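#structure-requests
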Amino acid sequence: MAGSTDLKTTEDYRKEFIAERERLAKLWDAYEQQEKEVGTLKNRIALLERELNEKARIVKSLKDVLEARDRENRELEIETTSLRGDKATHEPKFNELQSSLRVEKERFAKLFKLAEELDGELRTARDEIQARDEWFRIHIDSLRGIGKAIEERDRMVEAAKGRNIRGDYKSTLDKIGK
C-alpha cells in the first residue's frame, strides 16, 4: 500500500514539474516577444525622432525662406507705393511675387501639418513603450519567482534521486530527469 502511494506522489510531482516547465516556457516566449516589440518600438522612436528633427530643420529653413520672401515682399510694396505713377509697369511683378508668396505659404502649411502628425506619432509611440515598460516592471518579480520555483523543484528531484530508492522507482526517476 505504501509503495502505490509513493508511485502516485512521484507521478503527480512529475506531472506538476512538466506543467510548470511548459508554463514557464510560454511565459519566457511571451517575455522574449515583449522584448522584441520594445526593441522595435525603440528603433521606431529613434527613426521618428530623426524624421521629426529633419522635419523641424526643414520647417525652420522654410520659415527663414518665408521670412526672406516676406521682407522682399514688404520692400516691393514700399517701392510700389513710391512708384504709383509707374503702377502699370510694376503691377505684374507685384502680382507674381504675391502668387509666389501664396504658394510658399501653402507649402509651409502642408509641411507644418506633417510635422504635427509626426509629433503625434512620436508621442503615441513613447506612450506605448512606457506602458510596456510598466507592464514589464510590474511582472518581472513574477517571472523571477517562476524561475526560482523551478530551480527549487529541480533540487527536490535531485534530492529524491540521491536517496536509495528500490527497483523501478529509481529507473523511473532517472527517466524523468532526462
